[in-house]
Each structure stands twice: as C-alpha cells, then as structure tokens.
Amino acid sequence: VHRKANGPDREAKALREGIARSASELRALAASADQEAAPLLEFQQAMLEDDALSGSAFEAIEGGASAEAAWTDALDEQIAQYRAAEDAYFAARAADLQDIRDRVLRVLTGSPANETPPGAILGGDDITPSQFLAADWSRGGGIVLRQGSAASHVAMLARARGVPMLVGVRDLPMMAANTVLVDADEGAIVLGPDDATVLQFRTRRAAGAAVELEAAGLAYRPAHSADGTPVAVHINIAGPDDLASLDPAICDGVGLMRTEFLYAHGLPDEETQFAAYRKVACWAGDKPVVIRTVDAGGDKPVPGFTSDETNPFLGQRGIRLALAKPGIFRAQIRALLRAAAEGNVHVMLPMVTLASELAGAADLFADEARQLAAASIPHRMPRLGIMVEVPAVAVAPQLFDHAAFFSIGSNDLTQYVMAASRDNSAVAALHDAAHPAVISLIESVVRFANGRQIPVSLCGDAGADPNVIPHLLRAGLRSLSVAPAQLARVKQAIAAVRLEKVP
Ligand code: PEP
Ligand code: MG
Predict the structure, then answer these.
(1) Which one, of 207, 107, 190, lies nearest residue 144 by Cα?
(2) What digits encode the pLDDT tens for the residues 36-78?
C-alpha cells in the first residue's frame, strides 16, 4: 500500500533524489566489482540514468501520484513489455529493470536489502543481478527459477562463477527440505537426499572441478581433435566491452560480433558504430573479425527502426529490414567500410534468404565506398559473407556460391527446421541442433562450401555444446565461434572427438 502523495513538487524531488542515489550506489558497486559484474552494474546505471525510463513516472507525479506509486507503475509497465519480447536477449533484460525498480524503491522507502545466507538455493519466478551479486556463492548454493532465461545477465554471471542454475522449471517444488541438490548438468533438483546421494553428488562435483582446471589449461592452445585435426575456435561478442579482460591469444579471431546491442538504446550514429568496430578490430590485430550487420526486427525491437508484427520470427528481420530502410543501413555500412581500413574486418549479413539480398547489400556497400572515396575518407571494401540460418539457404546453398563465406546460425536454423521457438522453454526439447534433420542440413552445407572453397563456420550456441560438437565435427565443420566463457570447454570437447574413420 503506497502512502499519500505530498504534492507534485516534493514527490518529483524525492524521485529525482532516489534515482540519483541509486545511480551513485550502482557506480560505487561497479567500481569495486570484478570484471564480470562491473559491466552489468554500469549497464543498469546507464539504464537508470536514461530519462526515457522515468519519464512516465514524473508524468504520473504531475497527476497526483506518490513517488513510489509512480515509479512502481512506470517500471512495471516496462518490465511487462520486456518480458513479452520474443527475443531472449530483450526478455532477459526484464530482470535488470526489476532490479533497478527495487533499488530505487528501497532508497525511497529506506528499507534494507534482503540477505541470502551462504550456500542457499534460491527459488522463485526470476532473480535479479543484484540479488545474485549480493549472495555469497563461495560456499556452494544454486538457483532454480520458474521463468528466467539462459540468456539473462544472471545466467551469464552464474555460468562465469560456476553456480548451478536451472530455468523454466514450471512446477517448482516447495523447497522446504533442509538439504536441496541442484544438478545443472542433468537439469535435476533433489529434495532431502539420502547420504549416499549427497556423497555421489560431491564426488561428481569434484570431478567437474578437475575438468574445469584441465579446460583452463587448454585455453591458450590451438584446438585439435583427438586425432590431431585442427579446428579453428573464434569468439562471439556483442561489443568491445566483452573484450576488456580477454587476451586475443586464446582464440582464432572474432567469428561473430552481434551489432544489435549497439541499437539497444535507439539508432547509433556512424561515429559511434565506427568507434566500436575499430576497437574490436584493433583488439584482434591480424586475426579476423566478422562483424554482422544489424539483425533487428520482430524479436529484437529497435525503436525508430522495427515495427510491430504478428509473427516476428518470420517477419522483417535482419537483412530484410536493413534493405527496407536503407537510410539507417547506410550509416552502418559507412562505419563498416571505414573500420575495414583499420583491421582484418569481414562483414556478414543475417537472415539472408534470397541471392538478391546479398546483391542488394553489395550494391549499397559499393555505393557508399564510392562516396567515401569522393570525400577522401579512408575505407576498404570488406569481404561479404552470409549467415546460413534460413532453411531455404541451407537447402539450396548453390544460389550463394558468390558469397565470401558462410556462417551457420544454428540457433535460428534449428528453430526454423524444427518449428520450435528458440526462447520458449516449453519446446526446448524440440529445439535440438543435434536432431538428424538439422545435422544433415549442416553437413550438406559444409560439403557444398568445401567443394567450392567457400570458408564455412558455425556461430550458434550448438558450437559450444559438448554434446553437439562431435556431430558438428563429423558433419565436416572445422571452424566454430562460441561465447568467450565457453572457449576452454569447447577446446576440451573438440580434443575428445575422434574423427578418423573406423575401418
Ligand atoms: C544464430 O541464429 O545461430 C545466430 C548465431 O544468430 P543469433 O543468435 O544472433 O540470432
Ligand atoms: Mg540468428
């Protein structure tokens, strides 16, 4: 129950101060946080300081609401919108907004934060990054969520810290037992286990820790299968911030830079994009950097760019949208042409379905290059490759024999082949990249590409899944691109695959 308002001026002042204090709390936390947590806290601080977030709260205060009521309603509305987003990345940001909402409310009402005892298993609908960071995970513990998402910030933190976490546990049991085991390898929860089960669990955990240590030792070595076949391993990033603590020596380059994160707060201008691309190219030195043109649309809404669609995954996404709005696309193209003059930059087009889309993009690149040349601005024409993530391309790759390279997007390819949404835990079992239908398609794409000497790689999450990696290598793939945190484990999984033919 909210208190009565004290008049718009005092309420607005209280909210302004509440936001400012919360932002400085986040700044202080970020300053003392480790390299995984700091960017996340800075991200929350930037969101909090964006006037767009609080605009409707100040309007409600003008209309007579108290600071707490106005702030809660404004944030709840946005949280609901984010949660409803079909794209996992956007839906996952709902927990950040929830976190921001609660932090400001705590400041406004002067209430203390909840404490999590060490070793606790947290259960509920979802948890916020602040709740995660406030807990002491050094003595074990885990997370079990009814909702949640594998693409959330909490999931990224949990992965990085080795905290077992389950999401999409629809019928979460009451966890009143004294001992609860969370097995993130098997996706299982054990309530009140007997001594033998606890012992078995401890043994498995110790074995898992040994595997991690061994994997870390592999990080700096080039990947080879058990029979010595080299496999290139690149990294997937969202922007230069992801590289802050990474040594380029651990990978063969950047296999996918997803540029839509630059568009998270609206349309970025050419200079902002150029600066981000150049930083990544400089980090990589001579190693290749594949920058993907913006894959906005439907599932990844960008205000001022995308529109509402009834079936967004099958709508105007990726290259379809970029070509439909060339004014916006051209700013990115210019930034890419300029960045290509500064490093080993290659450009990849997402959601390509028709050869005319590749040709249309190539024409725009050529046109912008001419204009940059006329203005004596340094630039270079990058090699233009395509994502193979629409079944039409995987079935008829011969229509793309002029592409500079292929990169298989197994996340989307799997969802389109299996007709199972990539971000819906209810159909997660169907979204299976190891299904023979998906693997045989991948195999035929690789065979075609190898026959035409078109470099081919895979940059979807399947490339980081130790259960799928053997299928991918046997399908002929010799290049993968994975999240940096998975890199050592991926090299280890590759090292366990025997590729030579059994006589
Ligand atoms: C994919 O679809 O596999 C992919 C790498 O692209 P994204 O996950 O960004 O859609
Ligand atoms: Mg994709």
Answers:
(1) 190
(2) 778 888 889 999 999 989 999 999 999 999 999 999 999 999 9
Pocket test for ligand 1, best of 235, 459, 479, 481 (most atoms within 8 A of CB): 459
Q: How far is the C-alpha of 456 from the C-alpha of 477, rounded, in Å?
A: 7
- CB 493 within 8 Å of CB 466: yes
Residues that place a CB less than 5 A from ion ligand 2: 389, 409, 412
- The answer to whether 242 touches 278, Cβ cutoff 8 Å, is no
Q: Is the pLDDT of residue 326 over 70?
A: yes
Q: In terms of DSSP H, where are the helices of 252-350? A: 270-284, 319-324, 326-340
Place of tokens 């046109």: 367
Ligand 1 contacts CB of residue 295 (under 6 A)? yes
- Which residue, among 392, 499, 383, has the nearest Cα to 445 in the 3D structure? 392
Query: Could you give the CA distance from residue 440 to residue 477 in angstroms, rounded to a whole number?
Result: 12
Residue showing tokens 């080299």: 230
**Closest approach atom of ligand 1 to CA 459:** 5
465 lines ligand 1 (CB under 6 A): no
